[in-house]
Amino acid sequence: MTQMRKDVFSGRWVIVEESVAVRPSEFQFKPVTREAKFCPFCETNEASTPPEVFAIRPPGSRPNGPGWSVRVVPNSQPRLRIEGQLGRRGEGFHDLMNGVGAHEIIAETPRHDLALHELPPAAIADVVRAWVARILDLERDPRMRHVLIFKNHGEEAGAHTISHSISQLMALPITPRIIKSKLMTAREYFHQKERCIYCDVLQQELRDGTRMVAENPHFAVFVPFAARFPFEMTILPKAHESAFSVIKPDQVEALAHILRMALQKLDGTLGHPPFNLSLQDRPFLRPRMGYWETIDADFHWHLEILPQIVRVTGFEWASFFFYNPVPPEVAARCLAAQRCD
């Protein structure tokens, strides 16, 4: 028997198995192979990438040389380029513009043999700081409206050619449709109840506990009520904040710990599964009469972790109804029970 569950944040419907005995071993994956071949993102190979736009280094360490802990470089094959003007124009009934934006690679560690969740919390905190620094820098570019931070881990999740632990950044001259949907839902909820929908859902998840995976004083990890994928997780800050870029220093450390814990639980439960991670952040507040009037109060940034362990089929693409064969409550119990180091 299945249920149809509606995601309160996006309005998306998901078909979820109502009751099923899940054995995590059914979804086991092999570790990501990190072959000992040349990698441009390893330390000492800095000349093989475009010049860095940001790096975390000790004093005295020279740019574009060894010694870094996190290094950000432009993608050598970018989908969008920083040069040029948007050139917004029409073509009959259609709208188009030039492919202007930014596409950057964040090398999360100089070591090729370590995944993000295998790094110490202090190193993951440096990755978070790099994300923040790049968002703040790109926000100063008036052409940009939104920054996406995402990570593809494993070939099935899109990491086809790069086995080094990286995340990516894309700055866009428009706000993605899924973010707009979340913004509109959050704004409408706030107008009706004068409360943040994310804060209300978080309080419910903390009280109920059936979908909770982990928490610390600053963050909570839970499986969403209408999870699209088996073992999907959301990381939500407990303190309300609409913009990721204003994260406080103690929150950076706490986020590093909880992100590491969530990924270790996923890895331990499913045996090295491929996954996508994304930052769901508010757009830049470009002047627009009345449009962002309540965004600081109604939106709440968060991270999504989407394991890629089932195939998306024609039904999902045709209907945008996802099918999740693992009840979120069962997935949460499996993840919560997994021990971390």
Question: Which terms summarize this structure?
Answer:
alpha+beta, 10-stranded antiparallel β-sheet, 26% helix
| Cα Rg | 20 Å
What does the average pLDDT come to?
91
Q: Outline the low-pLDDT stretches.
A: none
What is the first-to-last residue Cα distance? 37 Å
Within CATH, the superfamily carries the name HIT-like
Number of helices: 7
Overall 3D form: globular
What oligomerization state is this entry in?
Answer: single chain
Question: Order of strands across the biggest sheet?
Answer: 3-4-7-9-8-13-14-12-11-10
Helix-strand pattern, N to C? EEEEEEEHEEHHEEEHEHEHEH
How many domains make up the coordinates? 1
Could you estimate the helical fraction of the residues in percent? 25-40%
Query: Which CATH top level class fits?
Result: Alpha Beta
Report the portion of residues in β strands. Answer: 15-25%
Biggest sheet character = 10 strands, antiparallel
Q: Which structural class do the helices and strands define?
A: alpha+beta
CATH topology: HIT family, subunit A
What's the number of extended β-strand segments? Answer: 15
Structure explained in plain terms:
This protein is an alpha+beta fold and 341 residues long. Helices cover 26% and strands 21% of the residues. The longest helix has 22 residues, at 249-270. It has one domain: HIT family, subunit A. The two termini are 37 Å apart. It has helices spanning 121-139, 177-193, 197-208, 249-270, 295-298, 314-319, 328-337; strands at 2-6, 13-17, 54-56, 70-74, 89-91, 94-96, 102-107, 146-153, 166-172, 212-215, 219-222, 233-237, 275-280, 302-307, 322-324. Strands 3-4-7-9-8-13-14-12-11-10 form a ten-stranded antiparallel beta sheet, with helices on both faces. It has seven helices and 15 strands. Helix 1 packs across helix 4 and helix 4 (249-270) packs across helix 7. The radius of gyration is 20 Å and the shape is globular.
